[in-house]
Amino acid sequence: MTPAEKHASLIKSIANRLGFDFCGIAKAGFLEEEAPRLEEWLSRNYQGEMGYLANHFDKRLDPTKLVEGAKTVVSLVYNYYPETSLPESPESIKLAKYAYGEDYHFVIKDKLKDFLEILRNEIGEIEGRAFVDSAPVMERQWAQKAGLGWIGKNSLLLNKKQGSFFFLAELIIDLEVTPDTPLTKDYCGTCTACIDACPTDAIVQPSVVDGSRCISYLTIELKDAIPNEFKGKMDNWAFGCDICQDVCPWNRFSKPHQESKFKPHPDLEGFTNQDWLELTDETFRKVFKKSAVKRTKFAGLKRNVEFLRSKE
């Protein structure tokens, strides 16, 4: 076994030990095929008010600009599929499943810090950085290169064994590691379930999403008032949206996560629409103290709920 093969075996062993569901490895380098796609997407203003997506164009495409001397991108999958969805009827106000429990940024970032520490203890000094949806890293493309899945028509990474209800994270390191084989086949076939189900027509063509029309964008990223054209089309989502994942046939393979920190806050489990309408800043701070929902702030969440309740 070569040193690079030993490193690959060690990395996958550590990933398993830390509770990651899948781990894949790719050789660091410029994402040549992605450059024109990203440029086209930005030129159409599909990023909406997410101006940061147009920043650091070169870094987004080349991990060696994020970590000097980078040789390897390690992609990791961490499951967040809940055992049961929060109580919901067709009229229930809803949160995306990833926001039920504690903020994934912190939960996974802590694991990645441990990952790097274990790796350095085993191998010696290596340069590297950990990323969880926190820097200009094209995580879905790297995960595909690492053989963890393919990009679905809803633009999310799909995995044959686990669907798409998971977080992606990366380690970019200057260590030589034997890469995995990229997944080049698209297993969506002729299915258009996600495209057909999107109430705001955000999926403009297979694998291309107009972010400025996505319910997740409208409820989280958009700071101004939600445009009136989306009244009656939000399907009662107050933070994020799971529609394109809920209808995806591959998510029948989703299995409940084992992360206690992702369990909903006890008060959240019994939330009624009346609770949402009467939400106070004090309750918001209590229930969402450690949640990703804090990103939209109390005022943003109230705006969303009021928009959902307003007449068409």
From TrEMBL:
GO terms for biological process: tRNA queuosine(34) biosynthetic process. The active site is at 133 (proton donor). TRNA binds at residue 223. One of its GO terms (cellular component) is cytoplasm. [4Fe-4S] cluster 1 binds at residues 188, 191, 194, 248. Residues 179-208 form the 4Fe-4S ferredoxin-type domain. InterPro entries: 4Fe4S_Fe-S-bd (IPR017896), 4Fe4S_Fe_S_CS (IPR017900), QueG (IPR004453), QueG_DUF1730 (IPR013542). Pathway: tRNA modification; tRNA-queuosine biosynthesis. Keywords: 4Fe-4S, Cobalamin, Cobalt, Cytoplasm, Iron, Iron-sulfur, Metal-binding, Oxidoreductase, Queuosine biosynthesis, tRNA processing. One of its GO terms (molecular function) is 4 iron, 4 sulfur cluster binding. Its EC number is 1.17.99.6. Gene3D superfamilies: 3.30.70.20. It catalyses: epoxyqueuosine(34) in tRNA + AH2 = queuosine(34) in tRNA + A + H2O. Binds 2 [4Fe-4S] clusters per monomer. Its cofactor is [4Fe-4S] cluster; cob(II)alamin. Pfam families: Fer4_16 (PF13484), QueG_DUF1730 (PF08331). Cob(II)alamin binds at residues 60, 133, 154, 157, 168, 216, 241-242. [4Fe-4S] cluster 2 binds at residues 198, 214, 241, 244. Its main location: cytoplasm. It is found in: Cytoplasm. HAMAP family: QueG. NCBIfam families: tRNA epoxyqueuosine(34) reductase QueG. Monomer. Belongs to the QueG family. Catalyzes the conversion of epoxyqueuosine (oQ) to queuosine (Q), which is a hypermodified base found in the wobble positions of tRNA(Asp), tRNA(Asn), tRNA(His) and tRNA(Tyr). This is Epoxyqueuosine reductase. The gene is queG.
